[in-house]
Design brief:
By secondary structure, the chain is an alpha+beta fold. It has 8 helices and 15 strands. The protein has an 8-stranded mixed β-sheet with strand order 2-1-3-4-5-6-7-8, with helices on both faces. It has a 5-stranded mixed β-sheet with strand order 10-9-11-15-13, sandwiched between helices. It binds 2,5-anhydro-1,6-di-O-phosphono-D-mannitol and magnesium ion.
Length: 345
């Protein structure tokens, strides 16, 4: 029988591979693992809320029943606050970032960005949801308070990122920039155990993932590409939790698209909380992530915390092919005649 490797053992072993590592990132990852177990416990019993008795937002003991996404948000903040390794947090659920007080007068050097429960519209119907996180080294002076600039860093500056999918089993996938590994929670021992070692995304896959209900609202080149996927008999899979769709694509190959629509001219998904961490992981596994302007997601300079972007992400061969479609079919910028009397050649 193979010996089980737990998430904690794995993280510590990885730290030993870096002789100058101080253990702070290690501590942070372990704290995120703990938060994931707490959220998992609550997600698993979400369906029981109605049986236990949800009246006027109160449960049987009179406590206020929180929406699960807010619960996950609070638990992550709590764990990171107590960790002492993190000086600031930005969450999809909070308007502004939070500066955390130092623990034992220690000045922490990392900030964490996260989407506490991605795909939360799926919770009530027992469909997979997930937590996404990204870790940056702070840029501002560690003596002062954390600043907005500490969060508005390009994805290329990520020192680590990951997600937890609460699906048929609970899986935590993370990378600190040297490969991607996945850990499945064994509920009988309460440990995440290494189950997906050194994940490599296939060059192509049989799946495409897009909300085809918006087809008529996409730009023409995107519609052509989606028609092409359908012509190839690729299988359409769209869960409505990006993290779950990306998990399948990471393991089996494929492409995920959330292009700009008329309602969301810059795309819907959040650069900081969803697109950057997932692009970091997909790139670490050999894949690609770009926007519909064909810019690499990780190279985008964020200008605000809740910035949105379009995204095309997944198997490298398929993202390149989509890129070729956009280049071929996108409408050329219309010629504007000079108005100042200057002549053109
Ligand atoms: P959320 O973070 O509020 O849950 O929204 C993000 C989710 C993604 O997980 C998913 O891919 C997308 O929104 C679904 O949006 P739509 O219903 O427009 O297809
Ligand atoms: Mg989300």
């Amino acid at each position: 029988m193979n010996r089980i490797v737990t998430l904690d053992e794995f993280i510590i072993k990885r730290q030993k591979d870096f002789p100058y590592a101080s253990g702070e990132l290690t501590g942070l990852l372990r704290d995120i693992g703990v938060a994931a177990k707490i959220v998992n416990r609550e997600v698993n019993k979400a369906g029981l809320v109605n049986i236990i008795g949800e009246a006027e937002n109160s449960n049987a003991s009179g406590d206020t029943v929180q929406k699960l996404d807010m619960y996950a948000n609070d638990k992550l903040i709590e764990c990171l606050k107590n960790s002492g390794e993190c000086c600031g947090i930005a969450s999809e659920e909070n308007e502004d970032f939070l500066a955390l007080p130092s623990v034992e007068s220690k000045s922490a050097k990392y900030v964490v960005v996260f989407d506490p429960l991605d795909g939360s519209s799926n919770i009530d119907v027992n469909v997979s949801v997930g937590t996404i996180f990204g870790i940056y080294r702070r840029k501002s002076d560690t003596k002062g308070k954390v600043q907005l600039e500490d969060f508005l860093q390009k994805g290329t500056e990520l020192v680590g990122a990951g997600y937890v999918v609460f699906g048929t089993s609970t899986i935590l996938v993370y990378s600190t920039g040297s490969g991607v590994n996945g850990f499945t929670l064994d509920p009988s021992i309460g440990e995440f155990c290494l189950s997906h070692k050194d994940i490599q995304i296939p060059d192509r896959g049989n799946y495409y993932s897009v909300n085809q209900g918006y087809y008529l609202k996409f730009d023409v080149e995107m519609r052509r590409y989606i028609d092409y996927c359908s012509d190839l008999n690729l299988r359409l899979r769209y869960i409505g939790s990006m993290v779950s769709d990306i998990h399948r694509i990471l393991l089996q190959g494929g492409i995920f698209l959330y292009p700009n629509t008329r309602k969301f001219p810059n795309g819907k998904l959040r650069l900081l909380y969803e697109c950057n961490p997932l692009s970091f992981l997909v790139e670490q596994a050999g894949g690609k992530g770009i926007n519909t302007k064909l810019e690499r997601i990780l190279d985008m300079q964020p200008t605000e915390l809740h910035q949105r972007t379009s995204i095309v992400i997944g198997s490298p061969g398929m993202v390149d092919e989509m890129k070729a479609f956009v280049e071929k079919y996108s409408t050329p910028t219309p010629y504007v005649a000079p108005t100042n009397g200057a002549t053109t050649s």
